[in-house]
Each structure stands twice: as C-alpha cells, then as structure tokens.
Specification:
The chain has a six-stranded antiparallel β-barrel with strand order 6-7-8-11-10-9. The protein contains one helix and eleven strands; from the N terminus they run βββββββββββα.
C-alpha cells in the first residue's frame, strides 16, 4: 500500500494498492500513528483509476510509419488508435517484441510529424503505448491543435 499525499490527522489521502498502481481509493487518516504502529484510516469512496499521463489521449486515427534503430531500412506501417501531444496508442502489427525505442512518422492531413518514441507498454502483439521523446514545442502545439479539432 502507498499513500500518495502527506498524511495529517483528519486529512484526505489517496491509497494505492501498490507503487505505480493504476487504481486508487480515497481515504481519511483517523489519527496520528504512534511510532511503530499501523495508521488507521477511513475509506471514503470506491476504487478509481489513476491517470498518470501528462496529456489525455483521444480516439484519433492517422497513419503511422515506424522503424527501429536495429533495423532502420525496415519500414513498418500502422496507425494510431488514440493520440495526444505527448504520446499515442499505436497499432503496429509487425513491430518485433522487446523493442524499447522507435522512430515514427505520423501522417497528418497537411504535414508529417517525425519523432522518436519510447515504448512504454504492449498489449496484444500489435498494440503499443508510446511516449514521444524528441518533439519540439512548436510541433507539440501543432499536434495538440490537430487533436483538439478532431475530437
């Protein structure tokens, strides 16, 4: 269990099931625990998902071209499932297992965004969650405007 806010008696806290959990539960610390004792808390609500992303993703589909540094001449084709200025959920069925970094081109209606991305997780062999790494502020702002218009 992890408490995400500094506990004070009568104060609200968020309890995570484990570090880096995706679920939290609001609670209130009942009293200041004595050294070596277990703090008592009152659960206030139901379990809720934790949003750890800096930007909210939206269901926007655009074509994606990708390649890895290990095989830079092999071009992979896919698309976004959802998109934000900071990352995306990609459908890349040919991406090899264990790849940690990819180079991407997002094919947008009036321009192409080229960026590096870190693979943060994979679900199903073809779904890949990525964070954009080398994206300039101007490109990020332009992508944010594109996503805002497509919602």
């Amino acid at each position: 269990m992890t408490v995400t806010k500094s506990p004070t008696p009568g104060g609200d806290v968020q309890i995570l099931a484990r570090p880096n959990s995706r679920l939290q539960r609001p609670a209130r610390l009942a009293a200041t625990p004595k050294p070596g004792s277990t703090p008592e808390s009152e659960l206030l609500g139901s379990v809720e998902p934790v949003e750890r992303r800096k930007y909210v993703r939206h269901p926007v589909q655009v074509d994606v071209l990708a390649w890895t540094l290990a095989r830079p001449t092999l071009r992979l084709e896919g698309n976004t499932v959802d998109l934000s200025p900071g990352g995306a959920l990609l459908w890349l069925p040919e991406l090899a297992p264990g790849v940690a970094w990819i180079e991407l081109t997002l094919v947008l209606p009036d321009w192409r965004l080229h960026t590096s991305a870190g693979v943060r997780w994979r679900r199903d062999p073809a779904l890949v969650g990525v964070d954009f790494d080398r994206i300039g502020a101007e490109q990020q702002a332009r992508l944010a405007e594109f996503v805002r218009r497509r919602r």
